[in-house]
Amino acid sequence: MAKAPRHSPRWWNDRLLWTLAALLALAYGLPHSTPVFAALFPALPRPVYLQEPLAQLLWQHLGLVLLSSAIAILLGTAAGVAATRPAGRAFRPLLEALAAMGQTFPPVAILAVAVPAVGFGELPALIALSLFGLLPVLQATLAGVESVPRPVLESARAMGLSPRHILTQAQIPLALPLWLAGVRTSVIVNIGTAAIASTVGAKTLGSPIIVGLSGFNTAYVLQGAVLVGLLAISADLAFDRLARRLQWNTTDTAGKTLLN
């Protein structure tokens, strides 16, 4: 029976493409939209945030999120994998307790504690965001590695695979979808939380929000919040697309490994 033709997705139906386009258009176009915001907020003498280029704040915000998320992913994944090994199982309750403490502390409190130690700027924000993004990655790593079905592990042992090969060829590939879900949560949370890093001098999209709140300028708050929201939606759509591709690839790879 002939296979039905596979239709390639139309670019005009691509939500990620349109969200990214809207994000970049606003970041670069908002400074030139004074007439629009003057009409929307006639009582405000300066309705558009012009103290710093919004496009520059966007890239600084994104850089802070990427760096802090990379640290959280590296530490969370390494700790999660180590806690599933026989030598590391005793440390699992301690790791989960430390990660939970980092998650339950409000980011503002972590910033307040970090500033006296490391000063103002990006460094206290990096510490706070890394700690805040650690728990989703750690929990997802633990859940993913332990979700591998027992028959799969028994088949791998019956094939004579060593514990290291079972981990790299069966457990990690099959755990990737759950792990990616944890990474997705960690990054999305960090995108929103990074906005408050402007309170300690870090340059992020939270700057117009903080300035707007302190100066009762609703237009500034709206401009910063819309950009942060579009960045979070873009990241979520990108992770959704990656998860769908990863689901198919990992299942296929692990299945071939065990069948061979």
Please tell me about this protein's structure.
The chain is mainly alpha-helical and 260 residues long. It has helices at residues 15-29, 34-40, 54-84, 92-104, 107-118, 122-132, 134-146, 150-158, 163-193, 206-214, 218-259. Helix 7 runs antiparallel to helix 9 and helix 10 packs antiparallel against helix 11 (218-259). The two termini are 29 Å apart.
How would you summarize the topology of this molecule?
Elements: H1 15-29, H2 34-40, H3 54-84, H4 92-104, H5 107-118, H6 122-132, H7 134-146, H8 150-158, H9 163-193, H10 206-214, H11 218-259
Helix pairs in contact: 1-11, 3-6, 3-7, 3-9, 4-7, 5-6, 7-9, 8-9, 9-11, 10-11
Q: What does this entry show, briefly?
A:
The protein has 260 residues and is mostly helical. It has eleven helices and no strands.
Key phrases:
ABC_transp_perm/SBD, 260 residues, MetI-like, mainly alpha, transport, ABC transporter permease, 11 helices
Largest sheet: none
Overall geometry: flat
If you compute it from the alpha carbons, what radius of gyration comes out, rounded to the nearest whole angstrom? 23 Å
| Share of residues in strands | under 5%
| Strand count | 0
